[in-house]
Write a structure and sequence with these properties.
The complex is a heterodimer of chains A (559) and B (204). In chain A, 22% of the residues lie in helices and 20% in strands. In chain A, strand 6 and strand 7 form a beta hairpin. Chain A starts with a strand and ends with a helix. By secondary structure, chain A is of the alpha/beta class. With 204 residues, chain B is mostly helical. The longest helix of chain B is centred in the middle third of the chain and has 34 residues, at 114-147. Chain B has helices at residues 3-13, 21-26, 42-55, 70-81, 84-105, 114-147, 166-179, 182-187, and one strand at 198-202. Chain B contains eight helices and one strand. The chains are: A alpha/beta (559), B mainly alpha (204). The interface between A and B is large, with 61 and 63 residues.
């Protein structure tokens, strides 16, 4: 059984799992990374990213068969021929929706790190202190000063482009040059700045795309086809960044097709001793032992692993002694915003395709702004010229019609809001007692929804978006709100929150499970509140921080 | 593609809400027991290339839909991506188009001159646009009905909605097939690997 023993096991290979593997192997720990799905090799397995767009048989559309296999993904915008094989087979891996829940899953090496939106923002103390100041849920056990050096650390390695905007509520970081705004966005930014007297800002999106080469990776080529797989390694993913670094140490073993069914817990030592896995292809069970375990299976699946572990000690699983395991699910609510057309730039065109757009950081309930809801929201957006798919009122068919459509149309600008969702104990996931997946394993049941605070915030999101466009001189403004099912923001958080007290939290300030200190959870499950900014950069920083702590504890003989 | 472009892209994929959007979104499918044609024949592909060329003809600036072989693209899309209901409308539409041509011009589409073909399709396009306007109105009425607390006794306007007109499908597939083809991309000045971004290019 010697060959089944490692220093560390990392469960999951997405953004945070990849970071855990890189950090732990970099410190000299023999590490096993377990991935429940297929191998997905950098460049070689990017079926579409290395081809021309016209080579896709259905030119991006999905087939009737795919619509049947992936009904959840077809609820949103991500059902695209080029990436369908990256999404989980929903027939094999169902889940129960007590309330509507859109769960975007990628069960393959790298997880969602090849598919993600790459927006990368630091949280601030406005976020870390919000729960404590409002007396809501529980306090974060950390503050900005605890994580700030780790943001520096991960930004330098991942490669984040952005401008230094000097905003206390959206701290600057170690940035590569920003991806520039276009002429229309710059114009709108200056109008907003003037009108709102520097209280609102339209800034460059901060994005994990390289605007300058870093060792081993080529800079972004402005194809805007990131999620099809980038042969240049132009954006951060497990495949382009953390995995090669971890492999280079010679300390990493990767095992795909490995569904972790439970963490093995020794109740006498009050520690985990390893994991049990089910080989997804052979249905064989294996055990692997390690001194420390990093659980990075993605927010909901990390909770699932805990729920299925140490059930002989705690009926609800490892970490359930707090009564909070599986609770406090958050997301960012979106699917709403405003758009319009803008005149006066007809002679201005764009070259290249950006992998980002602009960002408008939160401005509500900050610096004297007071609303009838708590917390806030930000917007992601962009200005561009209409494409061939526009309608032309005066033309219907013929040569002039074709030649007109071949050229860029009118300028328009749009923005989508992303709002904070408060942690509510009653927003929860549980194991479904009746249904099983393809491997006979219990499945998750989702019971979470938006509540009053979020609903009030949504009215403000569309209203403020329309106001800002109006101020900027935008015409034909329309707002939309398509509703939001939990999970649809793909920023699911909570379920195993960090805290100061084992009675009310699953993890301590170092992401250790209170009931098993050699188990660390550093993906979205650990989040105590959701803020309104994209969370992935924070997962990276928390992971690197926890790995450093874990290594030192191991060295000191404390684990 | 990501969230920023999601809305326009979805509209594009769904054919600007033209191709069976109602069916697609509601996921409702009536069980048809009858066997419907699902795959275009070579003759039908050639025919649709001619129809496509009338919609997007070769010009000084760029090649047309026939050179881009939109007919072959339609074969793939109708076979793989259309529901049986949509396939039925599409294939019945091919017959309807030919019948309409014979009725109004006294000969089949392939025997018509470019000018005659254009005239016929402009007429069909106008009908689609009128139909869409009527449809939008019905949708609006239905939305109001559903909002109203006394919805019970009133008619369901959507049930009266005419089925997706075949010419809307053909035109949409022509546009999609053309502008996502190599010829189409190049007609728009597509650069495969731009290497940089410039958000303010002035053209002479």
């Amino acid at each position: 059984m010697v060959e089944n023993t490692y220093d560390a096991i990392v469960i999951g290979s997405g953004i945070s799992g990849g970071w855990a593997a890189k950090e732990l192997t970099g410190k000299g720990l023999k590490t096993l990374m377990l991935e429940r799905g297929r191998n997905y090799e950098h460049i070689k397995d990017y079926k579409y990213g290395t081809k021309q767009p016209w080579e896709a048989e259905h030119r991006g559309s999905t087939t009737k068969e795919q619509q049947k296999t992936y009904p959840v993904i077809h609820r949103g915008w991500a059902a695209n021929e080029a990436v369908m094989e990256c999404w989980v087979n929903e027939q094999d891996s169902p889940y129960t929706e007590i309330k509507p829940f859109t769960w975007w899953r990628s069960y393959q090496l790298g997880g969602r790190s090849t598919l993600w939106g790459r927006q990368s923002y630091r949280w601030s103390d406005f976020d870390f202190e919000a729960n404590a100041k409002e007396g809501w849920a529980v306090d974060w056990p950390i503050r900005y000063k605890d994580i700030s050096p780790w943001y520096d650390y991960v930004e330098k390695f991942a490669g984040i482009s952005g401008a230094r905007d000097g905003l206390a509520h959206l701290p600057d970081g170690h940035f590569l040059p920003p991806v520039s705004m276009n002429i229309v966005e710059k114009d709108v930014a200056s109008r907003l700045k003037k009108h709102y007297k520097d209280q609102r800002h339209l800034i460059n999106g901060r994005v994990a795309n390289l605007t300058a080469a870093i060792p081993g990776r080529t800079r972004c080529q402005f194809r805007d086809r990131c999620w099809e797989g980038c042969p240049f390694g132009g954006y951060f993913s497990t495949q382009s960044s953390t995995l090669p670094a971890a492999m280079d140490t010679g300390n990493l073993t990767v095992r795909p097709w490995s569904i972790v069914t439970r963490i093995i817990y020794d109740k006498d030592k009050k520690k985990a001793t390893g994991v049990e896995i089910l080989d997804a292809q052979t249905n064989q069970t294996y055990r692997y032992n390690a001194k420390i375990i990093f659980l990075n299976a993605s927010t909901l699946n990390s909770a699932w692993v805990l729920m299925n572990s140490a059930t002989d000690v705690w009926e609800g699983g490892l970490g359930s002694s707090s009564g909070e395991l599986g609770h406090n699910i958050m997301d960012h609510h979106y699917n709403l915003g405003a758009s319009g057309s803008i005149e006066g730039f007809e002679d201005h065109y764009i070259y290249g395709r950006r992998p980002t757009g602009f960002y408008i950081p939160r401005f509500t309930n900050l610096y004297g702004d007071k609303r009838e809801f708590s917390r806030g929201f930000g917007y992601q957006g962009g200005a561009s010229r209409d494409s061939w798919s526009r309608e032309i009122a005066e033309l219907n068919i013929g040569g002039e019609f074709k030649d007109t459509l071949s050229k860029p149309g009118n300028w328009n600008i749009g923005m989508t809001g992303f709002g904070e969702i408060l942690p509510y104990h009653e927003n929860k996931i549980t194991l479904d007692a009746k249904r099983k997946d393809k491997w006979g394993l219990p499945i998750l049941s989702m019971d979470a929804e938006l509540k009053d605070n979020e609903k009030k915030m949504r009215s403000a999101i569309t209203m403020e978006a329309a106001n800002m466009l109006d101020v900027a001189g935008v015409k034909n403004i329309r707002t939309w709100d398509s509703g939001h099912a939990m999970g649809h923001g793909i920023h699911e958080m909570g379920t195993a929150r960090m805290g100061l007290d084992p009675k009310t939290s699953v993890l301590n300030k170092h992401n250790q499970v209170w009931d098993a200190l050699n188990v660390f959870v550093t993906d979205g499950a650990c989040m105590t509140s959701s803020a309104c900014v994209n969370p992935s950069l924070t997962y990276m920083a928390l992971t690197a921080r926890a790995c450093d702590f874990a290594f030192n504890e191991l060295k000191s003989g404390n684990l | 593609m990501d969230r920023r472009t999601a809305i326009s892209r979805v509209a594009m994929i769904l054919g600007s809400t033209i191709i069976g959007a109602d069916l697609f979104i509601s996921g409702c499918t009536n069980e048809h027991t009858e066997q419907v044609q699902a795959v275009l024949t070579d003759a039908q592909i050639s025919y649709l290339n001619e129809v496509g060329e009338t919609i997007l003809p070769k010009t000084v600036a760029s090649d047309g839909a026939k050179a881009a072989n939109v007919g072959a693209f339609m074969k793939i899309m109708v076979r793989d991506c259309y529901s049986p209901e949509e396939q039925k409308i599409f294939f019945e539409g091919l017959d309807a188009l030919e019948q309409r041509c014979k009725k109004t011009l006294g000969k089949g589409f392939l025997s018509c001159s470019p000018g005659e073909r254009q005239k016929l399709l402009i007429g069909l396009d106008a009908e689609v646009k009128d139909g869409k306007k009527r449809n939008d109105l019905l949708q609006q009425k239905e939305a109001e009905r559903q909002k109203s607390s006394q919805a019970g006794g009133k008619p369901n306007y959507l049930k009266k909605t005419p089925s997706t007109p075949y010419f809307a499908m053909i035109k949409q597939l022509t546009l999609l097939g053309y502008f996502t083809s190599e010829i189409g991309y190049k007609s728009m000045g597509y650069v495969s690997v731009p290497g940089r971004y410039d958000g303010n290019v002035m053209k002479a």
